[in-house]
Specification:
Layout lengths: L8 H14 L21
């Protein structure tokens, strides 16, 4: 059996940056005009 590849922290960070470039997270637009729902605190 061959030696197993264990990625270093540097490798993990590089692959994480690559994945973010491939699939960027969508930016959510917050509706500023819509009133926010508020919950009342029960005592």
């Amino acid at each position: 059996m061959g030696a197993k590849y264990l990625p270093t922290i540097k490798d993990l960070k590089a692959s994480q940056r690559f994945q973010q470039k491939q699939h960027p997270l969508p930016f959510f637009k917050k509706p500023s005009a819509a009133p926010g729902a508020k919950k009342d605190k029960k005592k």
